[in-house]
From TrEMBL:
Record organism: Geosporobacter subterraneus DSM 17957
Keyword Transmembrane on entry: no
Start and end residues of each SLH domain: 44-107, 114-178, 181-244
Taxonomic path: Bacteria, Bacillati, Bacillota, Clostridia, Peptostreptococcales
Record-given protein name: S-layer homology domain-containing protein
Matches recorded under InterPro entries: Cell_Envelope_Struct_Comp, SLH_dom
Length: 611
């Protein structure tokens, strides 16, 4: 799934309600009301006449309707108290997290027959892509959940808690908190399968009880409640929290490598482990299974997920012989890290060290990560390294794929190794069996090889959101370079990438260096680019304005209409008068010809032009 969302999001979601509602589907259209593609709604600011009884949600409803994430059941009615179905709730959450394009691609693959769907003949077509993502990300985990009869039922509060927690990648934490007591009077009414999810949703400030401290786990979620939740998800989905560095004692890693338990100054803390976590032992890339409990480690946490773990073992070799698996190689200093169980040892080769593999003389470059070795030491010097067997196991990133030859290249340190895929090779991507054609450059993978042939490859998609300044564009190779802080990244731009400039559809040729960008990337390839110019001017007729929070206006230009958020401190000038800033936004008259200055998608200056 799964994109990194800041827990700032969660603590700011003060829903005294529960979570989520969606959009009611009443017809046979391919897209249900409330799930129009962004930009597909009629331009202008939507206003509904039935929001009086849900004033607490009216701003969220209007805002999300304007963005096209949801809309009314008719042109001027929203039906705020109508329950949403489970599939509608799932789709709303995934859209708010920015995965609508991915859902459309999944739907296209199903319609074209490139992907099979067990419920294609019973489900409404618009829902198939969202269901496929929910299945792939384990948001929906069993066959009973994946029936259209079940998905088309109203969503309960406890069910929405599970959908949201899983979509945010916090399933491991929910499992770890399964036995924690819930602080509600009706806690016993929460089904056991949902208790961990309800606990996390409450603990993170996402869901609360009612004014009598009841959670009402079986109560349906309304459209108004969903609008409030979706507004928060939309606001903060791309917010990058600072990376926090923590140092403590490793207590344990539990729940199939999903939860890290750390002792921080005698306080036990639980952390969700990112699927793409990097583990370094003695500054060499390693794996979770080689960490030792009760050892001091340093972890790096972003969006409340552990993205990196470092442990300096500082071990000294004892005894004459040590057997284990090579977990890291330093080609420059001729060092190897060898691990057995929870013990790792670092060995330095010298000019007298003999190396043998399967009984034959070899050289240092013939050693490989994942190889079983026996190391003989005497007087603190490595006398002999014997490679045992030919099976190699290690983790690395795919750097190249030759699809004609069925070859995959991996880079470990400065060493590039090329392996061949044959009909017996087992290929899994994010846990599911996949074809060779589905592998991509940039994926991380655990591999198992015999000689130069891969026996097994367990690959993972690396999804990330980048924010920074565009410093270079190679239009011929379709590559962009982004600078964020002191870090520069070059990404390939996918041919079907969504590109928007100041909120408008654009192309790669429209982008220029120095623009600020938000980029959604998958395996070092940009799937979506939202770019913002420092300042841009647009002219046209003011056809609508809105004095809500934030201010909004709708501009008509060349028969097209565009909606913009307006800074509350916007400067308003008369034509040819740069000194008059006394006018207020509310004084603007509909039908006026105006010129607006937009910075990062927000109007900061309005000039009223002479008729």
């Amino acid at each position: 799934m799964k994109k990194a969302i800041s827990f700032l999001l969660m603590f700011s979601l003060i829903l005294s309600i529960a979570l989520v509602p969606g959009y009611a589907y009443t017809g046979k259209a391919s897209t249900p009301p409330g799930l129009e593609k962004k930009g597909g709604l009629p331009p202008g600011i939507l206003k509904f006449i039935d929001l009086k009884e849900v004033e607490w949600a009216s701003n969220a409803i209007e805002k999300m309707a304007e963005k096209g994430i949801l809309k009314g059941v008719t042109e001027d009615k929203f039906a705020p108290n109508k329950p949403v179905t489970k599939v509608e709730a799932l789709a709303m959450i995934l859209r708010a997290l920015g995965h609508d394009q991915e859902a459309q691609l999944e739907l296209k693959a199903i319609k074209e027959g490139r992907k099979k769907s067990k419920i294609k003949d019973t489900a409404q077509e618009w829902a198939l892509g969202y269901i496929e993502i929910s299945k792939n990300w384990n948001i929906l985990a069993d066959d009973e959940e994946l029936t259209w009869k079940n998905l088309n039922k109203p969503a309960q509060r406890q069910e929405v808690a599970k959908y949201l927690v899983r979509a945010m990648g916090l399933e491991g934490e929910a499992e770890a908190r399964q036995e924690e007591p819930l602080p509600f009077k009706d806690a016993a009414a929460v089904k056991k399968a949902f208790r961990g999810y309800v606990y996390v949703a409450y603990d993170r400030g996402i869901m609360r009880g009612d004014n009598k401290n009841n959670f009402q786990p079986n109560k349906s979620v309304t459209r108004a409640e969903m609008a409030v939740l979706v507004e928060k998800l939309d606001e903060y989905k791309d917010t990058s929290s600072a990376v926090k560095t923590l140092e403590g004692i490793l207590v344990e890693i539990r729940n199939n490598n999903k939860i890290l338990v750390l002792n921080l100054q005698n306080s036990i803390k639980y952390y969700t482990i990112d699927d793409n976590v990097k583990v370094y032992i003695d500054n060499q890339l390693s794996a979770l299974r080689y960490l030792e409990e009760e050892e001091k480690i340093k972890i790096y946490v972003k969006n409340d997920k552990v993205i990196e773990i470092r442990w300096n073992s500082d071990t000294v070799v004892e005894g004459d012989v040590f057997e284990g698996i090579i977990t890291a190689i330093d080609n420059i200093n001729k060092k190897i890290s060898v691990t057995k169980g929870n013990t790792a040892r670092l060995f330095t080769m010298n000019s007298d060290t003999q190396i043998k593999i399967n009984g034959s003389s070899a050289v240092f470059s013939d050693l490989a990560i994942g190889m079983d070795v026996k190391v003989t030491i005497k007087n603190d010097k490595v006398l002999l390294v014997e490679g045992i067997g030919s099976v190699v196991k290690y983790m690395s990133k795919i750097t190249d794929i030759n699809r004609d030859r069925k070859e995959i290249s991996f880079k470990t340190g400065s060493t590039v190794r090329v392996y061949t895929v044959d009909e017996k090779t087992i290929i899994r991507i994010d846990g599911s069996i996949r074809d060779f054609e589905r592998l991509e450059v940039g994926m991380e993978a655990d591999i198992k090889a015999v000689g130069t042939t891969l026996q097994e490859i367990l690959a993972r998609n690396i999804r990330e959101t980048l924010k920074g300044t565009l410093i270079a564009i190679n239009r011929s190779t379709k590559e962009i370079t982004i600078k964020s802080g002191n870090t520069e990244r070059t990404l390939k731009v996918n041919t079907d990438a969504v590109i928007r400039l100041d909120g408008r559809s654009a192309a790669l040729n429209d982008l220029m260096p120095e623009m600020e960008v938000d980029v959604a990337a998958n395996n070092d390839k940009a799937d979506r680019i939202d770019a913002y110019t420092v300042e841009t001017q647009y002219g046209g007729e003011l056809i609508e304005k809105y004095m809500g929070n934030p201010y909004k206006l709708v501009l008509k230009s060349n028969s097209k209409t565009y909606a913009y958020n307006v800074d509350r401190g916007v400067i308003i000038l008369e034509d040819d008068d740069d000194d008059d800033d006394s006018k207020n936004f509310k004084d603007l008259k509909l039908g006026s010809q105006i010129e607006i200055t937009v910075s990062k998608g927000v109007v900061i200056k309005i000039r009223i032009l002479e008729d």
